[in-house]
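testing teh design pipeline on a random one, pls ignore if ur not involved
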């Protein structure tokens, strides 16, 4: 036991030396990251990229609903609070018009491999609004026979009628936000949601035959301890989700002013954050879940685990995915699209977004056109984030870089993170005890100036 403790202390001291507990780095749900988008990409580019989608192919579609009945203090998403349905109904009319514009532009025979509703709280839509939205979407592009329709569900903002509409429309994956079950922590982060309310929502979902359930939980919250997160994870495990996202809370009050309501002095230290993550991770693994990348866990039969085994795991703005559609189109205020040509983001302000759509134009406000180097570095970073390795064969064969030049890049990383990465005949590999450094190692392959953006803690 003393040897184990000494080894753990030695590893922590080395992680400290490498700056893990001080570093601020991107989450790498995109490359380049959103702070590097600019106004050089406009609605004309967005329309042109849609035109280049192949007839009969599949696309992924994201729908953003930026409204909540109450604003949780921990959340940094682009949302606004509303007590009435009036602004939601007005937004829905604009969103439907945007969907129809997309449908008129899409090449023939395009179907949806994925449809995801996020927010905000998409389940605050009344049943009639949900029905209208699904009908408009499926007129624009029907679901592929193997497609997945998922919705973010707030257990505090769901009922039988709304679930009936979603189930009838073909929702086959539900995603519930939990964050933490501890009452004190819930009070401090402004998210009151009891275990009983959450369990009842899960029961309603399962009663309708929805086959897959996702759940989100956070580590790094104020007043969180190893004992408290263990209790929350065990309660979550009793609900048997198929897939879990274990995200680190990002305290960025300069970006999300509502987070100033959270007492910074109650937040765990970076060293304590790592222990919170490890505590939760051990419980998920003990219960038979597979580790997926840096912050997801899934049942062995879930699509993420199968994609990992087959080398098809990908990372996008929703985290990890088994979707391999070449285009992800985001609709709604602030939504981000990814095409083979680049990124396009809608105007963030609801009023600006609405004005553009009512003018008969797509709402693109900024984006990024990929360079040849972007493609290569994006894939290298994605491989690290998904598989903790970079394949020499794939990168040299796909992007035309010489093996000697790639090894030079690898060598710089091996020197910087000695003892935590390894260079083999197959490529660069992050060792098991080096996994906490994954985002920092990915940063070493990032060619953009990271000083321009305030990123979250590396752990």
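output:
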């Amino acid at each position: 036991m003393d040897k184990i403790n000494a080894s753990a202390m030695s590893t922590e001291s080395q992680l400290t030396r490498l700056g893990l507990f001080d570093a601020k780095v991107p989450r790498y749900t995109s490359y380049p990251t959103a702070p590097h988008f600019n106004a050089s990409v406009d609605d004309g580019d967005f329309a042109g990229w849609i035109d280049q989608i192949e007839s009969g192919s599949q696309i992924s579609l994201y729908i953003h609903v930026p409204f909540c009945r109450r604003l949780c203090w921990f959340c940094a998403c682009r949302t606004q609070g509303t007590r009435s349905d009036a602004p939601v109904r007005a937004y829905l009319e604009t969103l439907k018009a945007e969907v129809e514009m997309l449908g008129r532009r899409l090449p023939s025979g395009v179907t949806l491999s994925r449809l995801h509703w996020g927010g905000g709280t998409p389940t605050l839509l009344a049943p009639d609004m949900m029905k209208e939205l699904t009908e408009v979407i499926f007129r624009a592009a029907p679901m592929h026979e193997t497609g997945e329709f998922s919705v973010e569900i707030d257990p505090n903002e769901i009922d039988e009628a709304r679930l009936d509409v979603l189930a009838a429309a073909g929702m086959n994956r539900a995603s519930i936000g939990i964050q933490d079950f501890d009452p004190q922590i819930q009070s401090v982060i402004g998210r009151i949601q009891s275990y009983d309310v959450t369990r009842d929502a899960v029961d309603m979902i399962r009663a309708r035959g929805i086959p897959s359930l996702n759940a989100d939980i956070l580590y790094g919250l104020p007043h969180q301890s190893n004992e408290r997160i263990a209790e929350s994870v065990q309660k979550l495990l009793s609900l048997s989700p198929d897939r879990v996202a274990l995200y680190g809370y990002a305290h960025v009050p300069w970006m999300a002013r509502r987070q100033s309501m959270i007492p910074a002095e109650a937040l765990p230290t970076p060293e304590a954050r790592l222990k919170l993550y490890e505590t939760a991770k051990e419980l998920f693994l003990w219960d038979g879940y597979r580790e997926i990348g840096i912050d997801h866990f899934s049942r062995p039969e879930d699509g993420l685990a199968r994609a990992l085994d087959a080398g098809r795991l990908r990372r996008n703005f929703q985290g990890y995915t088994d979707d391999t559609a070449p285009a992800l189109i985001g609709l709604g205020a602030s939504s981000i699209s990814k095409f083979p040509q680049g990124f396009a983001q809608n105007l963030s302000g609801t009023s600006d977004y609405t004005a553009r759509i009512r003018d008969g134009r797509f709402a693109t406000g900024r984006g990024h056109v990929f360079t040849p180097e972007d493609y290569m570095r994006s894939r290298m970073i994605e491989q690290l984030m998904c598989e903790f390795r970079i394949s020499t064969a794939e990168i040299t064969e796909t992007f035309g870089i010489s093996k000697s030049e790639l090894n030079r890049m690898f060598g710089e990383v091996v020197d910087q993170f000695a003892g935590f990465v390894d260079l083999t005949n197959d490529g660069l590999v992050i060792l098991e005890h080096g996994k906490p450094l994954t985002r920092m190692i990915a940063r070493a392959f990032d060619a953009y100036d990271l000083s321009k953006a305030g990123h979250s803690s590396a752990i």
